[in-house]
Every structure is written in C-alpha cells, then in structure tokens.
Amino acid sequence: MVSYGNSNIPIIIIPKGTLLFRVLETGDTGDFKGVQNCIPPQYNVFFYYSPFVVDGIPEWYAHIQDMEVYVTAQDLKIVSLISPSKYTRTTRTKKKQFMVSCHKTRKSCLVGREYDPCFRDSFLEKNPTIMGWTALGRKDVKQFKDSVKKGLLGDRLPYVHFVSDDRKITGPPELAIYPLQKRYLTDITAPENKELFNYIPIATISRKGDGLKDFLLQHAEKVTGKWYYKYKE
Predict the structure, then answer these.
(1) Which of 51, 200, 226, 231 has the most beta carbons within 10 angstroms of its beta carbon?
(2) Rounded Cα gap, residues 16 and 149, in angstroms
(3) Predicted TM-score of the model (pTM)
(4) pLDDT 10s digit of each residue in the chain, 233 long?
C-alpha cells in the first residue's frame, strides 16, 4: 500500500521475467521512441498478459498481422485497479483521487486521452517508483466476451485468464507502464539504450497459424494463482 491523502492505494508487483504482449501499428516507434522521440512523465505503454486478448477485440486489432512479445526487465511496482482493490479505471472521474483522466495532467509533449487513467501529478511526485497500473476496460471486456460467444477465440481461449474489479466486471486485464526503469518527472529525450527500458523485446510472431500457441507451449509458464505467464527460455 501507499498513501495519498486519506486513502490507501493497493500496490502489486509484476515480477521480472513476466511475458507481455502488444500489437503495433508502426513497429517499435511508440515503445522506444515515445512521442516524436520525447517521453513525457505520464507516458503509458499498454500490454496484455496473453497474446490472444486482441483476437477478441477485432474492432481495433484485426488488421494488425504480427504480435510483439516482450519480457519485463525488472520487478514492476504498479497500482492495482482490479479486485480486491476498491479502485477501478473509473476512479479517474471522481474528485480528489490519485488518478485523473490523462488529458488533465500537466502539459507535456503528449496530449493525454480523456478515457485513459493517469496518476495525478502530486501522486506521481510522491511515488516515482510506481511504474503503472493494471485494470479492466469495460468496453474492451464487453467486446471480448461478445467474441467469445461468437466462437472467435476457439482453442485459444484457455490461454486467456480473467480477473474482476470492484464494478463486478470480469475479463482479461490490461497493463499500462511507463517505458523507462527510472521515472522522470519532466519530458525527456528517448534514450538510445534499450537496456534502460522496463521491457525487453524477445520475438515478433505472426498472428496467423499456430506460432503464438507454439511459443506459449514452449516458453510460457502460468504463474500459480495469477493471470500472467513467466518466460521460460
């Protein structure tokens, strides 16, 4: 837990060596270059804990052919917006909370989106070692479950693990993390050294065929009691 005002904020650790999955429109530009080579304090890079979540959200991802696979470079201290936490993605809309909508944060080289949660600047200044958050997005979960009902996931569904949150929503969570292992509270130029980042790219795998399933069978070990996989070399 960390405190903010009169509130206790639940913190969890995503261990070093956890597999993360992400689809990209334009290579690794956003992952390692930020916004036009600038990384602002509130930059969120989004991942899923399973490669097959995106198969259930075709509105956004159907046209992207490849899956990028990463592994966490260090233990990540993040805020939990899933049960048993009383906080959720909608916490950003409430007054005097530690999160706000990203467009309400301090001016930077990135204009934040209204529907994404970001840490309040004062919370971030007090807790710079917190690297992000994990949560459920209501719209994405609904679309994913609709795809499951239509049979679009097929034999890939067992590789997707569900959690719930305080709104009684149940589905596959997302992870949003700051790119660098050290958080800066001002805009910085993206470093060339990828060893400074919180994630290490290990593979690019076509979403067609059985390549992703084969990768999981060979290199993924489900962490007991959790919703994510540990990387096995």
Answers:
(1) 51
(2) 34
(3) 0.95
(4) 999 988 999 999 999 999 999 998 765 556 898 888 999 999 999 999 999 999 999 888 889 999 999 999 999 999 999 999 999 999 999 999 999 999 999 888 988 888 899 999 999 999 999 999 999 999 999 999 999 999 999 999 999 999 999 999 999 999 999 999 999 999 999 999 999 999 999 999 999 999 999 999 999 999 999 999 999 98
Q: Are strands 76-80 and 132-135 parallel, antiparallel or unpaired?
A: parallel
Beta-carbon contacts of 185 under 8 Å, excluding residues fewer than 6 positions away, are 41, 124, 125, 128
Q: How far apart are CA 204 and CA 218, in angstroms?
A: 15
Q: Locate tokens 């589905």: which residue? A: 171
Tokens of 181: 């292992």
Alpha carbon distance 188, 61 (integer Å): 30
At 164, is the secondary structure helix, strand, or coil?
Answer: strand
CA atoms within 13 A on the CB side of 93: 6
Say how far apart CA 135 and CA 92 lie, in whole Å.
Answer: 12
Number of helices (H), then strands (E), belonging to the chain: the values are: 5, 18
Q: In the structure encoding, which two tokens stand for residue 177, read together?
A: 């993390």
Are the C-beta atoms of 99 and 120 separated by less than 8 Å? yes
